[in-house]
Amino acid sequence: MDGEIPVFINPMDVEIEGNGRYRHADTVADLAAMLLSSKWPKSRPSFHRALVASLEALEFYTDAATARAAFVIAAHEAGLRVLPDDGEALQRKPRRGRGLRNDEQRPQAGDVGKYAS
User: Fold this and answer.
1) For FRET with 51, which of 20, 77, 96, 98 sits at 20 to 30 Å CA-CA?
2) Where do runs of H (alpha helix) occur along the chain?
3) 70, 53 in Cβ contact below 8 A?
4) Mean pLDDT, rounded, of the chain
C-alpha cells in the first residue's frame, strides 16, 4: 500500500475471526481485505455489491460511507456482528412487557360500573 492514500471510514470491529473474536477496520482497504479473506462467505449477492463499492471507494468513484454501508449489509447477511453498529441497534430496540406507565392503573374488581359508558 506504499504511495496510496488511505480512505478512512468510521471505525468498526467485525466478528469474522470466530465467535467473540473481532477484526478491526479503519479504512476501505481493511474492508476489502476482510471481504477477500478466506473466512468470508462469498456466495451472497450483497458480498459482490460490498466488494464493488469498496473498490470504487478506493479509486474515489464513490465515498467511503457508501462502501461501509454496503459492507455492513453484507456482514449482516453473512451472519457476522459489526460493532458499534449492532450495539447501537440493540440499545434502540424497545423493550416489551415492561408493564403499565406511571399514569395508568389496572382496573380493580369493584370498578366494573366505573368504566361503562
Assistant:
1) 20
2) 28-36, 45-58, 64-77, 85-92
3) yes
4) 83
**Helical axes 45-58 vs 64-77, angle rounded to 10°:** 160
Residue with cell 468470508: 40
Q: Which position has the grid cell 468513484? A: 61
Closest of 91, 92, 71 to residue 82, by C-alpha: 71
- Give the span between the Cα atoms of 31 and 62, in whole angstroms: 15
Contact 35, 74 (CB under 8 A): yes
- Which residues in the chain land under pLDDT 50? 1, 95, 97-101, 103, 115, 117
- The string of pLDDT tens digits covering residues 13-24 is 999 988 889 999
Residues above pLDDT 90, as percent of the chain: 61
Residue type, 73: I
Q: Which of 57, 79, 77 is nearest to 6 (CA)?
A: 57
- Nine-digit cell string for 99: 408493564
